[in-house]
Amino acid sequence: MNVAQLLGDKGHDVISVLPHRTLAEAVRTLSEKRIGAVVVMGADGALVGILSERDIIRALGANGAAALEMPVSRVMTAKVVTCRPQTSMDELMEMMTSGRFRHVPIVEDGRIAGIVSIGDVVKHRVAEIEAESRAMRDYIAMA
Q: β-strand 111-117 against 103-108: which pairing, if any?
């Protein structure tokens, strides 16, 4: 299975914020949408960063409550690791594990095609293992 198939099941919705918005606004978005990261998009729709819960915690730890008034651009991760829809699930899991991050934007033809979280990957892997288990039980029952 590859990322395109996962996005086909999960959907291509991407929640984004503009880099000039305050951290407080981004936090409200994360809370309202019940998500752990937002993609930061420029006015032209280009990917300029990603803002995760970890980025927010680091900013709060360094600056206290004043961090909430900072623009997202000062807190976000600007070097975003992305993948393509053709990326295999094994490659994606390796990227996320070795990079120690939980969200990966999917880029196709220079545009954001979706975002995948570690929760999406785990859900896929559990479903895969359950399907293999069912197939094995059915095979044994028929033998």
A: antiparallel
